[in-house]
Amino acid sequence: MVLKVFFPSCCSSAESGILIGRWIPEQSSAVILAVVHFPFIPVQVKQYLREVQQVTEVGISVLGSWNNSKQEKEESLSEFLEDLGTIFSHEPWIQISKEGDSKFWNCSTLQKQSDNHREEEIILVYYDQRKVMLSHLHPPLDTADLGAEDASKLAAIFNTVASSKVLFMTDRYDDGPIKMTHWQSDGVEASIIVELMKQASVPACMLLTFLLSLVSGVCNSRVLKFWPLSFLWSKLSTCEQLSHRLQHLQVISSSKKAQNQTQLMRKANIFVSLLIDVALGILLMSWLYRKNQIGRLADTLIPVADHVAEELQDLLQWLMGAPAGLKMNRALDQVLGRFFLYHIHLWISYIHLMSPFIEMILWYVGLSACLGLTVALCILSDIIALLTFHIYCFYVYGARLYCLKIYGLSSLWRLFRGKKWNVLRQRVDSCSYDLDQLFIGTLLFTILLFLLPTTALYYLVFTLLRLLVVIVQGLIHLLVDLIDSLPLYSIILRLCRSYRLAAGVKFRVLEQQDGKPLRLLMQINPLSYGSVIQTYRLPTYSCYPKDSWSSLCKKLFLGELIYPWKHKGEKQN
């Protein structure tokens, strides 16, 4: 069995001492974690390792000796390090020695039972202890049994280093009896600053949690559950986005500690997403209130609404004539055209009635951008829905009339064939009709059939207009979902510190010398950007139903309504 020794590259210049780490017998691997320098008392070292084992629950022990001879080889020191194997009982006893500035080390194992040195079948693997300590190994998504086994072996090494945080709190500059060298030996001050920042964030989180509990209590009160308020809360996308962001604030302000790395990354992604969202919202708000941009928008909004209404009037006048040379039913065509023209007249009157207050409404709406860019986009979507409410009404009228005729024709077609729809058994059964029923049914079928082209044309035109509005709102909500669900912290971490998101490792063979152990350098393979987004994507809500193309075409053909808003409770995880 080949013995693999994982040696931290930060300890290559450490002074002579003993090697402490974890022995993994299933893999015949030794994971070196630190080097304890001379002088030391063996009893204190054993007691310290027992305390570390109780805290970390990792079997840390003394694995061997480390001899860094910067001058000529010292025989007495080598014998002393070899005799330490009798004090610290470990099988096998690993001996690593470095002579001067040489890159090639001597590595051997001492078996106490046979009392012989073995200098062959040893692989010395150098690894960056800091990167392995801070990285999180992600299991591969699609692996065979062999790949899963290799991943579990590699995870044991990563978990050993990551679970030994307590061991890295002591270094060679401490005044205690034990002095060590490890990855954090020169950076303890930075970790202390991080701990102080964590302690300072506790009161802020408690205050934020208290404020959020008050807001949640108001939102869950019975006043908001009455019909008008509950209906608006479930239909307006702004309310849904505010509820979604409120849940995010409750997650990041929770005093409950993250149980694993996934929960910690989720909190970090939510925090960065909120931070960037609010920053973009403040930039938008600063642009709106600079050089009277809101006044310009208000002056542009009314002419645009009038232009849209005029275009709809021209479209209806075209439909009331001979559209594309089609022969329409003139009586029904005139009734439908005048009906829709009257609605447009009411809508123009409503817009001009609201025109003096448009600038004031936009001024207060612009303040909502401080809550985030997503809230401002949702408000824009709701404003578009309100400004195009007459188009939605036209679509509903046309869809209901078209749907009534389609279902009437299908029912009369079954009567014409001597069949009927069995409501109890949900199937079509045979039925015998008398002569009067067949005559009336055939007459109604003929009337509906000849009136269908006129109704279908109006339904088609208003459905296309409605789909145009839905596409615009869909693009806005697509941008909102992108900001809400994109794991920005994970992407930034992958860009700046790719080793933190490890997908695996690769081994590079270093320069070799005859009679020396094989030297490998372990390097971390980061996750791809697609895997990062797939792994850490935040849950969000969808404002539009996830219908397939076949289901959508079926609804359009039958005249069923396509609701632009998501009903309450239909959240996508």
Walk me through this protein's architecture.
The chain is an alpha/beta fold. It is 56% helix and 15% strand. A hairpin with a 4-residue loop joins strand 11 (419-422) and strand 12. Helix 6 crosses helix 7 and helix 7 crosses helix 8. The longest helix has 51 residues, at 435-485. The radius of gyration is 37 Å and the shape is elongated.
Question: Helices, strands, pairings?
Answer:
Layout: E1 3-8, E2 17-24, E3 29-37, H1 42-56, E4 60-69, H2 75-87, E5 93-99, E6 106-111, E7 116-118, E8 122-127, H3 129-134, E9 136-137, H4 145-162, E10 180-181, H5 188-219, H6 227-235, H7 237-252, H8 261-288, H9 293-319, H10 330-367, H11 373-387, H12 389-416, E11 419-422, E12 427-430, H13 435-485, H14 488-496, E13 501-509, E14 518-526, H15 529-536, H16 549-558
Parallel strand pairs: 1-3, 1-8, 4-5, 8-14, 9-13
Antiparallel strand pairs: 2-3, 2-4, 3-10, 5-6, 6-7, 11-12, 13-14
Helix pairs in contact: 5-7, 6-7, 7-8, 7-11, 8-11, 9-10, 11-13, 12-13
Transmembrane segments: 270-289, 335-354, 361-388, 437-461, 467-492
Protein name: Phosphatidylinositol glycan anchor biosynthesis class Q
Pfam family, one: Gpi1
In short:
This is Phosphatidylinositol glycan anchor biosynthesis class Q. The chain is an alpha/beta fold and 573 residues long.
Query: Helical amount among residues, as a percent range?
Result: 55-70%
Structural class: alpha/beta
Mean pLDDT: 78
Biggest β-sheet strands, sense, barrel: 12 strands, mixed
- Element order, helices and strands? EEEHEHEEEEHEHEHHHHHHHHEEHHEEHH
- The poorly predicted ranges are 565-573
Q: What is the number of helical segments per DSSP (H or I, 4+ residues)? A: 16
Overall form: elongated
Distance between the termini: 48 Å
> For the CA atoms, what is the radius of gyration?
37 Å
The total beta strand count reads 14
Strand content: 5-15%
